[in-house]
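The data layer described in this paper is built around a simple, fixed record for each protein. Such a record has a labelled line for the sequence and another for the backbone structure tokens. For reference, a complete record is included directly beneath this paragraph.
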Amino acid sequence: MVEIAICLAVIGIALVAIIGVLPIGMNTQRDNREETLINQDATVLMEAVRGGARGMDDLTNYVYAITNYQTLYNPNPKPTVTFGWTNGPGFLTNGANIVGLLSMPEFTDVNGAPLANITGINYYSNHIVAYVHSLSGPAVEKPPQDNNIVVGDSFGYRVLCVNAPVAVDTNLYNTLLYPNGPPAYNKQLAANLHELRLTFLWPQQPNGSVGSGRQTFRTMVAGQIMQTNYYNNGSPWLYFYQSQSFVNTP
């Protein structure tokens, strides 16, 4: 009986240790799975934006909302205004609209044209946030899936998309250093080279908050950002990277 009691005590201690480690292992497995999904989706989204992709209408199955927190800066900066577009009956009805919104420049003038610098006044600052159901993951969660419970419980995240002009000489418009105006090279570089940053925040919670996952992907895109002529009934301007098109800045 004594030996049996000792054996049970040893087994009990071992089980307590195993049960204590089990949640840690499960959390690690979940974190690794989420990071893998983020890495796979980041490649797709970054290539779509960088290449000015058209025809990726499958994105409408995953990108269900995009928000722009826009602020006007002038001698009297205005409060931030929020613009939002949703899937279904909203504006996100095809892949071109989605990519065009994700490619919106960080800085635009009052007419929506991209800005290479913000040394002047009267410009808009755009803060684009996309809400996405994961493109990768179990097939049972993917379209065609008409079960709202399954779709709602699937892994999702937010993407902060920044299309910023490259940093140039901070003395670019210093008339003492450059009495004849800014160097042409600096102006050309600012107009034809952009930094694309995608910051992923996950997981997206049903109550609207996000978890602790954070990861940023960055790349440089050579070429100009073209503004479309599509603007009607309050719909936003769309923008696309033209990697083979460069603009001459006087």
